[in-house]
What we know:
The chain is an alpha+beta fold. Helices cover 22% and strands 31% of the residues.
Amino acid sequence: MHMGFHKKLAGVLGATALAVSGVAANVATAGTAAAAACDHVSASNISNGVVVVVGGATAYKEPASDCTAVMSMAPGHNLNAWCFTVNSHGNQWVRVNEGWIYNGHLALKSGTVKHC
Length: 116
């Protein structure tokens, strides 16, 4: 029970709720990496892709989990994908109306998603 609560609390606080490998490394370098990762990334709605949330996801202001969390979404939520980018950590993120979502939490439902 206690661990489940801790995991939920971490998600609420936005403390790297994504199950990404190398979390310890990200935390250790957050001071330097966060600034670069959270720089504004230009994105336009240039794709016709529709993606679906797999296993739950959090949308962020910029394409990195170090950045400000905007909202979380339940599995099965369909989103219009604008475009994708690769952040400074080498991870692919997709821009949707609600913000940026890590690609590992999405599946392409239809159409294509172009590079931003």
